[in-house]
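Category: protein sequence paired with discrete backbone structure
Discipline: computational structural biology
Format: plain text, a pair of labelled lines
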Amino acid sequence: MKRTKTIDLTKPSKLRIDEETSAFHPSWGNTILMTAYDDERTFVLTRDGRNLLLKRPLREVLSRFALDNDVPWYERQAIYDMTGARKGRGYIAGHHRLVPTHGTTNANVVYYMAHWLDEEGIAVHDHQLIVSFHGCKRIFRVRIDTSFKTFNRLLKAANEAATFQLDEIDWIRHNYGIDEIDKKESVRYYHNFRDHCQSVHHELQCARTTAIVRQVLTDYLGEEDCQEIMEKIERNAKK
């Protein structure tokens, strides 16, 4: 049975710091969570249990993380636009999910790896959220300054965004002959699966294109002037 370690992120100044470094690069596999320690440094809890301070602001750490792990901004915008979620957008790559606990401009936002989350280990104590994560050799119980309602809403949006990506992968694998659907399945199931995943794939293609074009037009024309053009592009992209 794994040992348990408790970390209180509501009092970051009281955290024990093991090392201050510029050499650590957060990835899906080596990190449990990250949050701003101050304006210039980022606190990171690693999967092997180290409390690190990175000598870069949180926004720079996240930008580097997205680049290193191939999560472009237009992909994030596309999949979250499909969920309808406007605030608290995470970094999603299928089963891998780096999810915020608040809106991304909130000073107390914590980004955590939802794939290390112990979903049965979420509790509210003294009006504060305590969330458990699976580390390499122990369970980390983390006290976070957010509500269960907000935490659950943002996690649900991230899971929905991830599902769109996974549905698209199913369609691509099937369409390229890599993963054939079991021929013993009924014809109705086969077509439901195929049609659904194909539809998601086309929607994502449209959403990605729309996100990129909208950004370019906004840079040159401004938000209001590009709206009519965008509506025409979106209509054509869905044909």
Q: What stands out?
A: The radius of gyration is 20 Å. Helices lie at 58-68, 73-83, 148-175, 187-221, 223-237. The first strand starts at residue 3 and ends at 8. Residues 187-221 form the longest helix (35 residues).
